[in-house]
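Usage

Read records sequentially. Each one opens with the input sequence:
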Amino acid sequence: MARVLTPAGSHSRWLPVVYLVPVAVLALAPTLRLLLEAFGDLQQGGDSPLWRMLTAAATWRALWHSVYTAGAGTVISLLLGGLFAVSITLTDVRAKGAFVFAFMLPMMIPPQVTALSWLQLFGPASPVLNTLGLAPPLGSPQPLYSANGIALLLGIQHAPLVFLALRTSLLNLPGDLIAAARISGACQRAVWRDVILPLSRNGLVAGGAMAFVSALGNFGIPAMLGIPASYYVLPTLIYQRMAGFGNQMLSEVAALSLLIAVLAVAGVLVQQSLTAGSASTLAGSGGRPQRFRLAGARPWVEALLAAVLALILVAPLAALVVGSLVPALGVPLSGDTATLGAYREMLDRQGVTARAFSNSLLLAGGAAVVLMSGCLPLAYRLRRCPATVRAVVTSVLELPYALPGVVLAIACILLFARPMPVVEVSLYGTLALIFVAYLARFLTVALKPVTSGLAELDGSLEEAARLAGAGPLRRLLDIVLPLVAPAVFAGGLLVFLIAVNELTVSALLWSAGNETLGVLIFNLDEGGDSVLASAVAVLVVAMVAVMMLALSLLAPRLPKGVIPWQT
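and closes with the structure output:
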């Protein structure tokens, strides 16, 4: 019997080398290369790129712009996310699923599409305002080309992050505690003030921290609203410096990227310090908090939620559609002016459009397939590691996703600017470089659903197979894979949904012939062809909505929490 078990034991000893070491290198190598570049020339003293960037007025101006827009956007995210989380989780409003789906949609829509849709909604060239006769005079400034315009859209884009974090805290409120407060005579206002708000503070702080860090690294919205007004934040300043080339350009943008990374880490540390002191274990029945009956106020609350969604989602998307149906910006939509010319040009005469769709589908689909294939054995191996090792490895894998995308892009450029040793193959300027960046960035997105699925498995089935002589690979394929296949597929679909519209990473990594959809929309708008950009964006939004619906249909077979917009 010992001879039967020895190969399995030997096999289990080299499994960590096969799965954990390459993945850890993929996650850590870009970051380490960025640090090496940023600190590599410190011996030059005041002439080092890091010192020049830290003492440049443009850097501190962009830093203040980043903090201001991200901070103001976080306040808006807290207000919107808090309103929907509390209303949907703790009250008896109807159509909860529809409200959650619609509120989550802005987060899944690419930020450059969000910016484009709002630009089509306001300003003197707005097709909607011109159709309604409400457009300001020609030559009037576009109100969204400003710091407050950037902050508004950042707040809307990241409000779902606050919603998800706060909703998790509200779902875990012990219903027994709320019932006890009511029985003791506490009025509804006192229950909110003394029970609900203190116990849900961690979720609110965590959501605010995620919104702030995400806003710091957002490129699409500040680029489309800030660059025309010469209002630069750190990601757009890096984009500008990348276009300037120069002998020490990479070292300078590495220093700027390091500054963004420090800000992001500082935001996470502040969140941890604010929540550490209030960490506690709550006794009681969580998961189904007692709902507050709104009685006669329910229609008014539902109308408020619908009005907010109409303002932040329906109106901009309607403006995007209208903007794609007119021959030029500023032309009102009517029976005589309505045209599908932009869609015909996009599908028939625009080779770059077909190439961008092909590139995005290839990159997103390839990343989804590779990560689906690798995440199951990785999660399976991690489940058997000691808790400390598992926590360290998980933190390393989350690093490329936690850092702003522009930081990862610069790190990948630095890592692959020269041909790789031994094989002497260069990835710089190719789709392969974007693909590698996607694998590193979205690994944790694909891994988490699989980890959740494995945690819900009954270990007795696998134990019986082990006693029958089945090795780890046989147990993985015959026992584990059929049971967690929906979670594996959901992780791959989530990766595809996020990657197919990605801009922040690919904006710095693309080259001629290697455009992605996100880059295409940004370039079309920047080049003045906003009508064609709107047509491409409409198809992108439709694709996102269809994939979200597909995930929703798969939800009953998935572990809880895999699909974020499911109630």
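Summary fields computed downstream for this record:
- The radius of gyration is 25 Å.
- Residues 56-244+293-339 form a domain with the MetI-like fold fold (CATH 1.10.3720.10).
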